[in-house]
Amino acid sequence: MRWLVGWSSIAASFGTVGAVGSQGEGRTIQPVGSQLLWGDPDPLWAVGDWRPDEVRVVTAATPKGAPAIRLAVLGCCGATDEQLRIGLLAARGGALRHLTAWPGSYTAVVQIGRRVTVAGDLAGARPVFHTPWANGTAYATAALPLADLIEAQLDISHLAALLACPESPEALGDGTPYEGVKRVPPGHALILREGSREVTGYEAVASLAVAAPQTDPVSAVEGVRDALVEAVRARLTAPRHAPGTLPPDPGPVPGMGPADRRAARGAPVPGIGADLSGGSASATLALLAAGLPGLPGTVLGHGTGAGERLLAVTFNDLSAQGHEGELERARAIAANPRLHHVVVAAGEEALPYAALESGPLTDEPAPSLVVAERHRRRLAAGSADHFVGHGARQVLDAHPARLADLLMDRRRRHLLRPVAALARAEGPFAHSLSVPLSVYRAARRLARTSYRTGLEEAAGLLPDANRFAPDLDTPADASLAALAWSRPGPAARWLTGEALAEVSVRLQGAAIRPASVQRPGEARARAALARHAADQRILEQAAEVRSQRLHAPFLDNQVVRAARALPESLRVQPGARAAILRRVLAGAGIHDLPPGWGAPSQATANAAGRIGLRTALPELIALFDAPLLADAGLIEARVVRKALRAASEGEPLPLDGLADLASTELWLRRLVTRRGTCWTGTAAPRRRAVAGGVVPAHRTLQP
Question: Is this prediction's pTM over 0.85?
Answer without folding.
Answer: yes
